[in-house]
Design goal:
Layout: H1 3-19, H2 30-50, H3 58-90, H4 99-106, H5 112-126, H6 133-154, H7 161-199, H8 203-223, H9 228-258, H10 262-278, H11 283-321
Helix pairs in contact: 2-3, 3-8, 5-6, 5-7, 6-7, 7-8, 7-9, 8-9, 9-10, 10-11
């Protein structure tokens, strides 16, 4: 007779568990890669058909199909990495279903002391010189989970005042670690990506990589909007983007001027001035703008001189025709 209430309680718990929203799972790559493989195969056969007159049409067709697959895989990795990072920062308490999480769920839950010890261990490892920026992000996630668990424990009825004081002290300690490691993640990620952007040869690659650094800083600013270090880092990255654009257009202007294409050079210098006006008005930027303005005036003078010379050379020929 006593087993019936236990069965009812278990059934009730099972129904409660079934009504809960399922945990978010990592997106499967099978569908995406299947579509990429189909597109690559279609491109392969199309190119093979178009290059039938060649000796080995399958070689360029195979190379083009391989490039499509590689670009698709790389693009998915970059997009998903940025999406998951932003989601972890915007929803720090949400956990994602994976094989690691399922194994962790099968073990008994850690006490707060053990969880705090694990956080401090990961924090020390993330502070090592050879650690990656993602190690700081992992500590931030562990701190978020600890704070959520601590709030739930404080809401439990019957918590003694001594226990409440202990939990509050641990929360303050973890909040400090959470902030420090999120700032460290944003700083190290932005520094690494900015350095990577400096090594890029093409302008669009520089800007794309620098924007990834800005995404890291903006994600941290959503959590700590008043942090001056993050604002300074964001300003530095934006200055790098503007300076890269200015340098790009100045280089194009110099090339055009060397080839005698003065109109094209003036247009490129104007584009450089446009990006300078979008940057903060500093003494360095003002000096650069004045230098570009002088170059434009020099080019206009050269154009006027060439026109005068051409008109003088053309006038004797016209007289001879007459």
């Amino acid at each position: 007779m006593n087993s019936s209430p236990q069965r009812d309680s278990k059934a009730h718990n099972f129904r409660e568990f079934a009504r809960r929203s399922p945990r978010r799972r990592m997106p499967s790559t099978s569908g995406y890669m299947a579509a990429a493989a189909a597109a690559a195969a279609a491109l392969f056969f199309v190119l093979w058909w178009m290059l039938q007159d060649e000796d080995t049409p399958w070689v360029p067709a195979g190379l083009a199909a391989s490039v499509v697959v590689l670009v698709a895989a790389f693009a998915r990795e970059v997009v998903m990495r940025r999406a998951w990072t932003r989601h972890f920062l915007e929803n720090p308490g949400e956990k994602f279903e994976s094989s690691t999480n399922r194994r962790a769920a099968a073990r008994p839950s850690f006490s707060q002391t053990e969880a705090l010890r694990m956080i401090e261990k990961n924090a020390k490892e993330s502070d090592l010189p050879d650690s990656l920026p993602d190690a700081h992000l992992k500590v931030f996630q562990l701190c978020s989970e600890f704070l959520d668990s601590a709030e739930k424990s404080l809401a439990t009825p019957g918590v003694t005042p001594e226990r409440r004081l202990t939990v509050r002290a641990r929360q303050e300690r973890v909040r400090a670690l959470q902030k420090n490691h999120l700032l460290a993640w944003a700083r190290d990620s932005a520094r690494s990506l900015t350095h990577e952007a400096q090594q890029r040869a093409r302008l669009h690659e520089k800007i794309e990589t620098a924007n990834r650094a800005l995404d890291c800083i903006d994600a941290a600013l959503q959590k700590y909007p008043e942090e001056e270090e993050l604002k300074r880092s964001a300003t530095a990255v934006r200055d790098f983007i503007n300076s890269s654009r200015v340098a790009h257009w100045v280089e194009l202007a110099q090339r055009a001027s060397f080839k005698g294409r003065y109109r094209r050079a003036i247009d490129c210098y104007r584009d450089a001035l446009f990006y300078l006006t979008r940057a903060d008005a500093t003494a360095e930027h003002q000096a650069a703008a004045e230098q570009i303005t002088r170059e434009i005036e020099i080019l206009r003078a050269r154009m006027a001189t060439h026109k005068a010379v051409d008109s003088e050379a053309a006038s004797p020929q016209q007289k001879r025709k007459k």
